[in-house]
Amino acid sequence: MAWNEPGNNGGRDKDPWGNNNRGGREQGPPDLDEVFAKLSRKFGGIFGNKRGPSSGGGAVGLGVIAVIAAAIWGFSGFYTVGEAERGVVLRFGKFYEMVDPGLNWKPTFIDDVELVNVQAIRSLRSSGLMLTKDENVLRVEMEVQYRVSDAQKYLFSVTNADDSLRQATDSALRAVIGDSTMDEALTRGRQTIRANTQTDIDKITDKYDMGILVVDVNFQSARPPEAVKDAFDDAIAAREDEERFVREAEAYSNDILPKATGRAERLKKEAEGYTEKVVNGALGEVAQFEKLLPEYNVAKEVTRNRLYLDTMERVYSNTSKVMVDSKSGGNLLYLPLDKLMNQSEGSKQQMSPSSSYGIELEKTENANPTPAAPRADSGRQGRY
After folding, report:
1. Do 148 and 212 contact (CB within 8 A), yes or no?
2. Which one of 106, 157, 270, 335 has the largest count of C-beta atoms within 10 Å of its C-beta?
3. Where do the TM regions start and end (predicted)?
């Protein structure tokens, strides 16, 4: 509704200050003293006295107002601390006490409470161009995960604990990269760099007592500048091929060595068995000759002949040739039984009707053979 709304009461207009515009004349803003006086009279009327705010009823009204204000102040002091949080109470801006999770109360306008989550895992990143030990430039990125271990120290030990941790991470990472070569940062030394960086960060946070616990450090990437990235990629690919070849060679070695070792052990065992066999055989022969020695001493000729016959028997038992001593003519006949047997088998397989007649003629001609000429070694006699 507009402040100056035309009314029905005699043509008088109303405004929010309770003044009427009589006779069509406009008045200025109301006096503040008059406004406060009207409010005082209204409050005095509410509490049963219309004579003014300085009376006894006005004092009672002020007391009720004070009670209501005190109740509002008391209820406004209740607050809740979450399960994962810790409350830091400040009294007139100075640390007063720590508050555990649950429902708590503080005097408003006197104490102030800072709630800090001590279970949430926070993270920050650190990256930049860094110089290695062998004077190469790398762009390194690392992520640090941490949580608050002490809420009081986290708020008051340093100006900004999160920013201080970021600076500590950057300093520790640059120091570790500066003590490492480019090859270590790109390939095989990543885990070492990560562990050394976390150790240095822990030393800095413990020194400044920031109330922060570093949970993990992740070495995300390390890459050369874009201008030489292609050459570095080729070098990394060659290094990976080298490692692959080494692994394949190791696998081949692991496959061949057990087989060769087993074969060597088998040959060794066979050699040992052969050695034992030969030695035992020699020992047996020695024992046999030792048993024959007394018999030889008693009857030398008989023992010598028996040994000779046994030896010849063993020798001739391994051949297919037969020596026959012809006592009538004094000639030594030689019968090649092996060749005769082979020829007879072959003739049976190749016999035909046309050749059977020739065989009969050969038998007829050989019925009365001419005496054979005496051999030069007819004077020798074989013994069996």
Report:
1. yes
2. 106
3. 59-81
Residue carrying the six token digits 């640059």: 174
Residue 151 CA to residue 358 CA, distance in Å, equals: 128
DSSP letter at 381 equals -
Q: What is the DSSP string of 58-89?
A: HHHHHHHHHHHHHHHHHHTTEEEE-TTEEEEE
User: pLDDT over 90 for what percent of the chain?
Assistant: 23
CA distance 44 to 36: 12
Q: pLDDT for 273-288, tens place per residue?
A: 999 999 999 998 888 8
The CATH number that domain 122-224 falls under is: 3.30.479.30
List pLDDT tens digits, range 311-363.
888 887 777 666 665 555 555 555 566 666 677 666 665 554 444 444 443 44
Query: Residue 260 and residue 264: Cα distance in Å, rounded?
Result: 6
| pLDDT at residue number 62 | 80
Q: Which residues contact 83 (CB under 8 A, 6 or more apart)?
A: 101
C-alpha distance from residue 208 to each of 28, 74, 153, 165 (Å): 66, 39, 10, 10
Where do the domains of the chain lie? 1-30, 36-75, 78-117, 122-224, 319-349
Contact 187, 233 (CB under 8 A): no
* Cα separation, 256 vs 264, whole angstroms: 12
Partnered with residue 123 across adjacent β-strands are 145
Residues in the chain: 384
| Type and span of the H or E element at 110 | none
